[in-house]
Design a protein that fits this description.
three-stranded antiparallel beta sheet; alpha+beta; extended; 122 residues
């Protein structure tokens, strides 16, 4: 079996013998979404009067458990995950939900920095 063509953007790396290119299928926001097994979810909002981003962690009963605030995405997700670890909690366990949190926080951070009040959580 012939090895796939080396990616053009790779400069000084070699490829593994079992290297392959995997084409990602399109994600359907409704059909592909699966709720967090714990039932937890997050709400993200920009607090314009404080120039901060807020992340509320909610449970399956729709109660806000904790709110994390900060100016940068990384500050917030680090605080949230450190809090989870310190208190032996498992609010977010699925990798796609963790990636979603990072994506949404970065969007909010950029909107805050640019003064763009059009941010909305997907």
């Amino acid at each position: 079996m012939a090895q796939p063509e080396r990616p053009k953007w790779v400069k000084d790396k070699s490829t593994a013998t079992d290297f392959e290119v995997i084409q990602a299928p399109p994600w359907d926001d409704y059909k592909d979404f699966k709720i967090e097994p714990t039932g937890h979810y997050v709400l993200i909002k920009i607090l314009w009067d404080r120039a901060q981003i807020s992340v509320a962690v909610c449970n399956k009963e729709h109660e806000i458990l904790k709110e994390f605030r900060g100016k940068r995405a990384q500050d917030i997700w680090t605080a949230l995950f450190n809090y989870e670890e310190k208190h032996s909690l498992q609010w977010l366990t699925k990798k796609d939900h963790i990636a979603y949190l990072g994506k949404e926080l970065k969007k909010a951070e950029i909107a805050l920095a640019m003064g763009n009040s059009g941010y909305y959580q997907e």
